[in-house]
Specification:
Number of domains: 4
CATH topology of the largest domain: Immunoglobulin-like
Shape: globular
CATH architecture of the largest domain: Sandwich
Bound molecules: ligand BES, zinc ion
Oligomer: single chain
Largest sheet: 9 strands, mixed
Strand content: 15-25%
Number of helices: 20
Length: about 650
């Protein structure tokens, strides 16, 4: 397939705008400096629960005459700054500029002053504090085999600044060297580079090894990642391994070994060859707050994807897809997050279709997505800024704007473009777009310009693209037009849900639920069935919920996607049988996708139990998740 390149003008304009301060969520003066390389020398101190070390930043000078470097920091101890071996003057703002943290200002004078145009290398001594929002530290008792401590990072969206001073914006990309000392195995978002240097411990402390990694592809700060703990690994494909606790290794290997390489090859066919050499998965402890995080080389994943039925590998298809959308081509700011997540959701579903050999599966997944979109729009309100494809995030915390909207509204937009242009033409644009912006950051206006320019010599497509109301697409809040999805796989779920709602209101209904009703259902079809019973006008009676839990085996299901939906149906019905199991589940999983709806519903039904559950487990949750639940309690108290 011949790839056509965008005209010089588009590429030039895009390149020029890379250095504009188009990201409102950073305090760094990144229009004057651009990080080219970052070396992180850290020691992981499990006893003190902190990272300590030195970070070296090589900055390219973009503007002559600039007398200071401003970097993002948040709840960080800056111990000293050196420029070329000599101490430099620096100041960390004492008052925080919420939600962005405390800018670190480094003054340049003398030889480093404004008249040179050479690169600048800063060495910054730094340690994290107990308020660090990017790390979770687990005691041995909090891990599955209870033998060793564990730590992991989660930097997206703006938490990298709480690990080390940086230009914490996706509009800046740097290569990385990681030199990490730890008593336990370490993974980082680069390729491992041996050998490891051993240092014996003293004063009863265990010895440490130096683990080194290199990331030669420039990446934004939010993809910086570390994890350390009792880790073992097994192969899940010719260029892939899975890492997890030794006891969980076999199950994790089984979950992923069938699909990982097939997904990589499917994605390579749609876009172009995988760039990051190996693709691996780290399965984290259950407090990991997301389903997955696309850290380069090592996707971080919740253990709830290891459900024993390979029904949640779509998370892997998703994180893998970020290897192109997000990690090679990155959103220029969190306002353009749909370019990361909408594109990734689009690619993820193309992979589903490729693996299953039919579009029915991708449309089934899109139907689940549409429900998530409706829930998010309902949560914010139809006119809310955060329901726009491009929200205004000036002064906002991107974590507060996070929802299914950029995923699903972004997906729907790309799906509609595919249908409008026809698959054949659209599929030529995909590699072109990912080539044009490879190793760069992109905003929605560049996306539009590149699309229009690619098809400029095709009169038919050009007309269609020019007829799009782009302002409406980008800025209209609320629902986009609903595509005509293939409902084949969802219809059986809706029909079954109908029978239950009728049974609930009509005593003469002849429907007698039996386990055969869900014969041949996948777990995700049960999810769609259960979602159709959420938020209905007359919730099911508690007796019917109990009957369903028994007949369909939902009450005992190990699939957390499924059981969470069942508990929400049960809580909305006031079925007491699910209250205690909900509280127990909330002590076992810290993935926010499940934690949020379960607390929301439990609070309404049994506030005391919800409160007690939170008190008992607040140490278990990741700081971001804990903060989210605290906000839910505040909101509930106000209502
Ligand atoms: N990059 C996201 C996770 C994320 C987004 C973390 C914003 C922090 C801030 C990741 O790729 C993702 O979308 N995860 C989903 C997986 C799902 C869509 C398959 C999740 O966590 O549920
Ligand atoms: Zn994603």
């Amino acid at each position: 397939m011949a790839i056509r390149y965008a005209p010089e003008s588009v590429v030039k304009e895009a390149a020029a705008s890379i250095h504009q301060p188009r990201d409102p969520n950073t305090l760094a003066n990144y229009n004057a400096w651009r990080t080219k390389h970052t070396t992180a020398d850290f020691e992981i101190d499990f006893d003190a629960k902190r990272l300590k070390g030195t970070v070296h930043l090589t900055l390219a000078r973009l503007a002559k005459g600039e007398k200071k470097v401003v970097l993002d920091t948040s709840y960080l101890d800056v111990l000293g700054v050196k420029i070329g071996g000599s101490q430099a003057r620096f100041d960390v703002s004492t008052s925080r500029m919420e939600p962005y943290g405390s800018p670190l200002t480094i003054s340049l004078d003398g030889q480093h002053g404004s008249d040179t145009d050479s690169d600048l290398t800063l060495s910054i001594g730094v340690q994290t504090t107990k308020d660090c929002t990017a790390l979770q530290w687990l005691t041995p008792a909090q891990t599955s085999n209870k033998k060793h401590p564990y730590m992991f990072s989660q930097c997206q969206a703006i938490h990298a600044r709480s690990l080390f001073p940086c230009q914490d914006t996706p509009d800046v990309k740097s290569t990385y060297t990681f030199n990490i000392r730890s008593p336990l195995p370490v993974l980082a978002s680069g390729l491992p580079t041996g050998p490891k240097d051993f240092s014996p411990g003293s004063n009863g402390k265990p010895g440490t090894l130096l683990y080194t990694f290199h990331q030669a592809i420039p990446m934004p700060s939010y993809l910086f990642a570390l994890a350390s703990g009792d880790l073992a690994c097994a192969s899940i494909g010719p260029r892939s391994t899975v890492w997890t606790g030794p006891e969980e290794l076999k199950a994790s290997q089984w979950e992923f070994e069938k699909d990982t390489e097939a997904y990589i090859q499917a994605a390579e066919k749609i876009v172009y060859p995988y760039a990051w050499t190996t693709y691996n998965v780290l399965v984290l402890p259950p407090s990991f707050p997301y389903g997955g995080m696309e850290n380069p080389v090592y996707t971080f994943a919740t253990p709830t994807v290891v459900s024993g039925d390979r029904e949640n590998v779509d998370v892997i298809a998703h994180e893998l897809s970020h290897s192109w959308s997000g990690n090679l081509v990155s959103n220029a700011s969190w306002e353009h997050f749909w370019l990361n997540e909408g594109w990734t959701t689009y690619l993820e579903r193309r992979l589903q279709a490729a693996i299953h050999g039919s579009d029915q599966h991708r449309d089934f997944s899109a139907i689940i997505g549409w429900k998530a979109l409706s829930d998010s729009i309902a949560q914010f309100g139809e006119d809310h800024n955060f329901t726009k494809l491009i929200p205004d995030l000036k002064g906002q915390d991107p974590d507060d704007a996070f929802s299914s909207i950029p995923y699903e509204k972004g997906f729907v937009f790309l799906y509609q473009l595919e249908k409008l242009l026809g698959m054949e033409k659209w599929d030529k644009f995909i590699p072109h777009y990912f080539t044009t912006y490879k190793q760069r950051s992109v905003d929605s206006f560049e996306f539009k310009a590149t699309l229009l320019s690619f098809f400029s010599s095709d009169a038919d497509v050009s007309k269609k693209l020019n007829d799009i109301d782009w302002d409406e697409k980008f800025y209209k809040p609320g629902f986009p037009p609903k595509p005509d999805f293939d409902t084949t796989l969802a219809d059986q779920c809706y029909e079954l849900a109908d029978k239950w709602t009728k049974l609930n209101v009509d005593e003469t209904s002849k429907f007698a639920p039996s386990e055969n009703d869900i014969d041949g259902f996948t777990a995700n079809q049960s999810v769609v069935f259960l979602e159709a019973l959420q938020g209905i006008d007359k919730p099911l009676s508690p007796e019917l919920v109990d009957l369903m839990g028994q007949r369909y085996g939902y009450a005992q299901s190990k699939n957390v996607e499924l059981v969470t939906r069942y508990f929400v149906v049960g809580l909305q019905a006031g079925a007491k049988s699910v209250y205690q199991p909900t509280a127990e589940l909330l002590g076992k999983v810290g993935r926010m996708k499940f934690v949020r709806p379960l607390y929301k519903e439990l609070m309404k039904r049994d506030y005391e139990l919800a409160q007690k559950t939170f008190q008992d487990n607040s140490d278990f949750y990741h700081p971001i998740c804990r903060g989210m639940v605290e906000k839910l309690f505040e909101k509930h108290a106000k209502a």
